[in-house]
Specification:
The structure holds two protein chains of two kinds.
Chain A: E1 3-13, E2 19-29, E3 33-37, H1 44-52, E4 59-64, E5 69-72, H2 87-92, H3 102-112, H4 128-140, E6 146-150, H5 158-173, E7 177-182, E8 194-199, E9 202-206
Parallel strand pairs in A: 3-7, 3-8, 5-6, 6-7
Antiparallel strand pairs in A: 1-2, 1-4, 8-9
Chain B: H1 2-5, H2 8-32, H3 39-56, H4 61-82, H5 87-109, H6 113-121, H7 129-148, H8 150-158, H9 160-165, H10 170-192, H11 197-210, H12 215-240, H13 244-268
Helix pairs in contact in B: 2-7, 2-10, 2-11, 2-12, 3-4, 3-5, 3-10, 3-11, 4-5, 4-10, 6-10, 7-10, 11-12, 11-13, 12-13
The chains are: A alpha/beta, B mainly alpha.
């Protein structure tokens, strides 16, 4: 498997604070489904932002192999669900400006996430799971190689979580590399190909056998 | 109907009113959806002190209000970042500063009651040719910018973090929206008045949101409600000899109530009841 992102001995601290991540070594490989686990406040999102290049480490290096990446932030669940916009309008936001096949592109990603028939629906009428699917569709528009997701199943019921994760598994099978942050291992246990556990600033890779499903 | 068009001041008022009726809801939609409805209120108080400065120093008040309003909008955006978790505090600070300055200046200028009334509540008769041209230029620039950067402004309004990650210069567009709002308020102040101009940014927008449509359709409806409020308000005020600013704003509120009523009736129709 081709390495897409490599972190070598990475340490990070927010201005004026202690190191929240220390000496992290991690490689994201092409086509894998990597789950980053850890308790609340373990700096999982910080690690994600370092990999996205949104934060710079104080120590160590991060090599990003020219890959198109997209990110669905944790905050997405806090977006205004009553915003007056249709599913199509939101997905279109990510279409490159000079793209001529906008309609075709939007239809194809909506079909992929199972929301084609909801194209003209107001986003306020979508369920939590459908809302997350719409955000996935938006992020698929520019054909990314890696999709980063930060706690995407938070707030979804069990059925919606399963639906959403099976969509991610299908996208992963089609070749999309997935890096997902979560504090709850249960829903993703069967789907992930690899686990990376962070706690108290330290990180280590864990095998499935090492994990106890709560 | 034709009688109204025989008067030059009404011709100017209709032209300026229509431009303000389009401009206010256009920018208002981006503000309201970002929970910044009170920005208009804040900037109108600043514009008022700008106009009074102009009167005090004997220079054309409108360009002075424009500059003052834009400068304060920049300060407002800076304060909004400073008080990251208490955004409304920045609005309260600028409102207090603007209103306080305006009250002091009113005392110094010793403006007549009619001048003060026209500033606070608008005055059609005092709209000059220079102001019509200035508002015309602003309308072209503002609508041109919104059309050109529609996608960026829409993305920013829906999801600021997502827009930043998509490579949109979020800070630039935040300043652009607030500066456009400042300019529209400073120039629209002459016709609707300092106390009422911000409501023209909020009420037609709120009415269009009630319709529950997509973003583009909501924007179009907000413009239509803005134009309708101005037209009905100006015509009614002319024939009934009412204050135009107040009549425009009351019309916009009545349209909102009618839409709300229509929506409630539609929801309660036997065929639409779940």
């Amino acid at each position: 498997m081709k390495p897409l992102i490599t972190l070598n001995h990475v340490s990070f601290a927010y201005p004026g604070g202690p190191f929240v991540l220390e000496n992290i070594d991690l490689t994201v490989y092409s086509r894998e489904f990597l789950v980053i686990l850890g308790p609340n406040g373990a700096a999982k999102t910080t690690l994600l932002k370092l990999m996205l290049g949104l934060l710079k480490p104080q120590k160590g290096t991060i090599e990003i192999n020219r890959a198109v990446v997209n990110y669905i932030p944790q905050k997405s669940t806090l977006l205004n669900p009553g915003f007056p916009a249709t599913v199509e309008e939101i997905v279109k936001l990510q279409v490159p400006i000079r793209e001529k096949r906008t309609g075709e592109l939007v239809n194809s990603v909506l079909k992929k996430v199972g929301l084609l028939e909801k194209k003209d629906t107001l986003i306020g009428s979508l369920s939590g799971g459908q809302f997350q699917r719409m955000l996935i569709a938006r992020s698929l528009i520019n054909d990314p190689q890696i999709l980063f997701l930060d706690e995407p199943t938070t707030g979804l019921d069990t059925e919606a979580q399963e639906d959403f994760l099976s969509l991610l598994v299908n996208l992963n099978k089609e070749g999309l590399t997935i890096v997902m942050v979560t504090h709850d291992i249960s829903p993703v246990f069967d789907h992930a190909s690899r686990f990376f556990y962070i706690s108290k600033g330290k990180g280590k890779e864990l095998a499935k056998e090492d994990l106890k499903v709560v | 109907m034709l009688e109204i068009l025989q008067y030059t001041f009404m011709q100017k008022a209709l032209v300026v009113g229509l431009m303000v009726g389009i401009l206010c809801p256009t920018i208002g939609l981006f503000l309201v959806l970002r929970r910044l409805s009170m920005v208009g209120e804040t900037l109108s108080h600043v514009s008022l002190s700008g106009v009074l400065c102009g009167i005090l120093w004997g220079i054309s008040p409108l360009p002075f209000a424009l500059v003052m309003s834009i400068l304060m909008s920049i300060l407002l955006e800076k304060l909004r970042r400073y008080f990251k978790y208490y955004g409304e505090v920045s609005l309260a600070i600028i409102t207090a500063g603007g209103l306080g300055t305006a009250v002091i200046l009113m005392g110094i200028v010793r403006a007549s009651d009619s001048t003060l009334a026209s500033l606070l509540f608008g005055s059609i008769v005092s709209v000059t040719n220079e102001e019509v041209i200035l508002i015309g230029i602003l309308a072209l620039v503002a609508l041109g910018l919104v059309a050109r950067y529609y996608r960026e402004l829409f993305y920013l309004t829906f999801d600021e973090e997502g827009a930043r990650l998509a490579g949109i210069p979020v800070n630039f567009f935040n300043y652009l929206i607030i500066m456009l709002a400042a300019a529209i308020i400073a120039l629209g102040l002459r016709i609707v008045g300092a106390l009422l101009i911000s409501s023209l940014m909020v009420v037609p927008t709120a009415t269009s949101i009630l319709l529950g449509k997509g973003f583009k359709v909501t924007l179009i409806w907000a413009n239509l409600f803005g134009i309708t409020s101005v037209l009905i308000g100006l015509i009614t005020s002319f024939y009934l000899d009412l204050a135009p600013g107040g009549t425009i704003v009351v019309t916009s509120v009545m349209i909102l109530l009618l839409v709300l009523l229509g929506k409630k009736c539609k929801e309660n129709l036997p065929c639409t009841r779940p």
